[in-house]
Amino acid sequence: MNELYSNHINLNAVTNSEFTYERVKAIADWLLARVDTRPRIAIVCGSGLGGLAEKVQNSMVFAYEQIPDFPRSTVVGHKGNLVIGLLDNVPVVCMQGRFHSYEGYSNALCTMPMKVFKLMGVETVILTCAAGGLNLSFDVGDIMVIKDHVAPLLWTLQNPLVGLNDDRFGPRFPAANKIYNKKLREEFKKIAKDKNIDLREGVYSSFGGPCYETVTELRALLQMGVDAVGMSTANEALVASYCGMKVFAIALVTNKAVIDYDSDNHPFHEEVIETANRRAQVLQELVTEFVKKISF
Ligand SMILES: O=P(O)(O)O[C@H]1O[C@H](CO)[C@@H](O)[C@H]1O
Ligand SMILES: Nc1nc2[nH]cnc2c(=O)[nH]1
Question: Could you tell me the pTM of the whole model?
Answer without folding.
Answer: 0.97
